[in-house]
Amino acid sequence: MSEFKNVNIVKLANVYFDGKVNSRTIIFADGSKKTLGFMQPGEYTFNTSEPELMEILAGELEVQLPGTDWQTVQGGESFNVPANSAFTMKVKTASDYCCSFLR
């Protein structure tokens, strides 16, 4: 899906790691949420309470999910993050992403 229709967008950006990672929250009619964001090269650790689907739209990074080895993810690929966990990304090139919060 290359675009979302009939959504509400939160105007205030989510800014992390001194502005090196930022996103905007999108809220759908059914109450589900996604964020669309951009990450500059660097290493970042995130904590999540809900399971997530991370779609890397462009760029390249390595991700280490709980209990796994590092894996390379490129634009057009995705990975799932379990609920109540932390994961680390080493962003190699500027990366565009979509994060879906799963219920």
From TrEMBL:
SUPFAM superfamilies: RmlC-like cupins (SSF51182). It comes from the Bacteria. Its EC number is 2.4.2.1, 2.4.2.2. Pfam families: Ppnp. InterPro entries: Ppnp, RmlC-like_jellyroll, RmlC_Cupin_sf. Keywords: Glycosyltransferase, Transferase. It catalyses: a purine D-ribonucleoside + phosphate = a purine nucleobase + alpha-D-ribose 1-phosphate; guanosine + phosphate = alpha-D-ribose 1-phosphate + guanine; cytidine + phosphate = cytosine + alpha-D-ribose 1-phosphate; adenosine + phosphate = alpha-D-ribose 1-phosphate + adenine. Belongs to the nucleoside phosphorylase PpnP family. Catalyzes the phosphorolysis of diverse nucleosides, yielding D-ribose 1-phosphate and the respective free bases. Can use uridine, adenosine, guanosine, cytidine, thymidine, inosine and xanthosine as substrates. Also catalyzes the reverse reactions. This is Pyrimidine/purine nucleoside phosphorylase. It comes from Methylomonas rapida. The gene is ppnP.
